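Re: that chain you flagged

S.,

Sorry for the slow reply, it's been a week of failed gels. I finally had a moment to sit down with the sequence you sent. For the record, here it is as I used it:
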Amino acid sequence: MEKHYCIVLRTTDYKDYDKILALFSRSAGRLDAQARGARKIKSEIASAAQVLSCGEYEFYKRGDRLFLTNALIRQEFFRVQNDYDAYAAACVMLELTDKILQHTTDYEDLFLTLIYALFAMEKEQLSWAQALAYFFARLTERMGIFPSIGECATCGDGAVGDPVYFSLDEGGEVCAACAPHVRTIKVARSVLDNMAALSVLRPKQVSEITTGEDDAKGVVFLLGKYLDSMMEIRLKTMKFLKENSL
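Prediction finished late last night. Pasting the structure tokens below so you have them in one place:
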């Protein structure tokens, strides 16, 4: 028997009444488990087999497969699930978490970053854009791929000005002299300043975020493109968010 504190990242219907759960364990990272009978109307584990359900999960192992036997759910993020934009942002967080787990063993910080960002939306401390901007900034910083800000990513000289020349290919801000020689997009200086401030906040400090909505959306848009460029992480949920909320 195994016990893990988990959040459900995604689910897949399996056979007639079962589900396969992709879970994120705070201590063990990504886990896949079969939830037998989870789709039956009177199933005792139905709520535990839903996306965003978070709590103490209990499994037994047969061969190399885990089977869910019981769960004590601590949070289901009802408000997030019933707010269109918040739910869309949460789905981006879950999908990105699922992909990032292939590249990190820093499970504790990633888990706390995800949970605190979701809680901030649930308690209406942060908007969906603020929460997602923090999640993106914190993850890129912890992964060691945070973009260069304040100095040119091409030549290393100081970079000033507003708006900023930002190069996805070069990995950050570029100076006016280098900008004509690389592909760039123009970004408001305040977007990069807020991005830098968000990246160093610990999960427990998430309620201190004061980033404005426009800058938060700018961070989300820029780092979504940046992750795609730097790590080839293409988020299906991000495309949906851009079409409907950004």
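What I noticed first: The chain has a mean pLDDT of 94.

Talk soon,
D.
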